[in-house]
Amino acid sequence: MKSTLRSRIFFLLILSGLLWSCKDDDKDPIVDPDPTLEENINNWIFDVMDEVYYWRLNLKTPIAATSDPTDYFKSLLFTPTDRFSVIYPDYQELINSLQGISLDPGYDFQLYRITDTDDVYAEVLYVKKNSPAASKDLKRGDAIVAINGTKITTTNFRDLLKQTETTHTISPRRYSEEAGGYSTMTDISITPVEFSEDPNFLDTVYTINNQKIGYVVYNFFAPGITTDNTKYDNEMDAVFAKLKAANVNNLILDLRYNGGGYVSSAVNLASLIAPGITGSDIFSRTKYNNLLASEIPSLSSVKTPFLDKSQNLGNTLSGNRLYVLTSSGTASASELIINGLKPYMDVFLIGDITYGKNVGSIAIEDEKNPENQYGLLPIVTQSFNSLDQSDYSTGFIPNISIKESSERLRALGDVSELMLRTAIEQITGIPSSARVTKLDRVELANTLERKIRYGKMIESPIIK
Predict the structure, then answer these.
(1) Pairing status of strand 211-218 against strand 200-208
(2) How many other CB atoms are there within 10 angstroms of residue 280's CB atom?
(3) Does the pLDDT value for residue 169 go beyond 60?
(4) What is the percent of the chain where pLDDT is above 90?
(5) Residue 317 and residue 321: Cα distance in Å, rounded?
(6) How many CA within 13 A on the CB side of residue 140?
(7) In whole angstroms, how large is the CA radius of gyration of the chain?
(8) Backbone angles phi, psi at 457, to 5 degrees
(9) Distance between CA atoms of 371 and 396, rounded to whole angstroms?
(10) What integer is the mean pLDDT of 300-323?
(11) Structure pTM?
(12) The CATH number, out of the four listed (3.90.226.10, 3.40.50.300, 3.10.450.700, 3.30.70.20), of the domain defined by the range 197-284+300-357+388-433
């Protein structure tokens, strides 16, 4: 292994330009003396994967080096075990998206098929602050029945989803509790723009039956943006300082829309919650492939400690319990939070079975070849908690199983909203008096699954 890699791997490089060697003879690609751009890119892909890929001993024989780089990359993967390694045509777009910067209309939605019909509608999950949609008359729970004047059906919803990536018109309907039905609204035109989405979506405190309950909605793990790389982590610290000042004794962490992100932000959040921990207590353990572990001894047993945070709430939580709201999209870094906190406290899950991803990536670019714009997110690590547990590849099963799709959506933070209501009932022991109607509908797809950051766990730098 070249010394350049040995020195850089200690920093593990979220922005990396690794030099690669140590290849298996039976898998070495044939190198053309006068290679094309595609061959150069594919040779780089092979060298990267043969060095850092978690399942490097199971790399498949590559297809022709003249192939499309995306096809070449996919041909190497250890499938079906590896469902997660990905390649992107634009490295900078990848990094921006992981930080919450993307071209976005500013609203996310879930598509449903109306039972026994081909009719489909989109229910708005949330509208993002400072986004194009935020200035429109659109809110959580609104139903969208047409896009660009075309009624949504089971046969066209995928094509219509793509149309929301450019200027488009939606036809929304709004439910009225008093009228007991939906009313037609004026069509809304929205033009996506590139903006920075803040993952810290909502926080509030409730006083119910002598219980002080903190509620935090966190939608992805990112420490900050390029101009302020700790902005979002600092905001989360401020949220917990506010909860601590309010003397909360119960905490509800809403991760239902959180598909993952940077491990560093997971460590930051966990350090605000775990009871009685110090900087010497272990949050997680990280394992690499056999080559990296043997070449670099420090990578054979990587332990990530908690941070010392003055805003920590852990010792004030009743019953040493944290309530976490989950969905099938609660993934990667969100699951790392659950697994890492379990040895220290009762992590009580309310919602759906989580995604099931206990492996992580680093984002890699080819710094030596400016013509190569591709970015790689190969699986490089597997994560364990302080007890060496990593048995959630099929997801965490909730203590209370519910799906928010079973009811009409209410505003996030509304105490009658299904998942928050269920958590509050567990805390107070008092059933809610909210009157709700159960819905019969079939989930099809949602816009959260289309985001680059969905299902990703991006490893933080490891400093020597």
Answers:
(1) antiparallel
(2) 8
(3) yes
(4) 80
(5) 6
(6) 16
(7) 23
(8) -130, 105
(9) 42
(10) 96
(11) 0.90
(12) 3.90.226.10
